[in-house]
Amino acid sequence: MSAGPVVRDVGVVIVAGGSGTRAGGELKQFRWVAGKPALLHSLQTFMSRPDVVSVVCVLPREYAADPPPWIFQCDIDRLMISTGGRTRTESVYNGLEDLPDEASIVLVHDAARPFVGDATIDRVVRQVRAGSCAIAALPVVDTLKEVAENDAITRTIERERLWRAQTPQGFPREVIVQAHRDGKAKHLSATDDAALCERLGIPVAVVRGSERAMKITEDADFARAEALFTLPE
Prior knowledge:
about 230 residues, seven-stranded mixed sheet, 11 strands, about 30% helix
């Protein structure tokens, strides 16, 4: 029995507006890893999905008007280029503004996580279709210590309910747009969109992420990411 046609109602905002100064001075989203620029991995992953209606790529201001040519190695009919803001929150807001009306579900993804896979994306989208906001995340497995300025341990933090946030983070469109509008009115900024929703009292669920979706921050992370690329999700 046929499952019927796939509805294209997912809009994706890929945040690639950072300066990347901790990754050797070069924009980390433009550096090559596992055979192609890091940003292109994410673009092509989301573009390959039949439920994605549009991908908005938020670039630094100096690149938004003249993107690197390899960025167009995807479905350019579904690609929009937006200009990054002074903060991550502003960059996401700019990307949301450029999504087409058909995008009733919004995924926000960091370009610094080039190897997110379809299984993780599916889990996030499934949770949003069920009616709630959701983020990919992994449970903390290390013992966590709180340390004072003199490097002395002050306490051990219980890890049983702690998760490491990843992306994509998914939301019903009206929820994330309103969260950003309210946040802007209240001059709020957050390290991710789930945190912005939390500060406004909007519940967010976690779904299982993947070690492959590690965030590239430091220069040494590129070698680690290359090693993880070959692992199954």
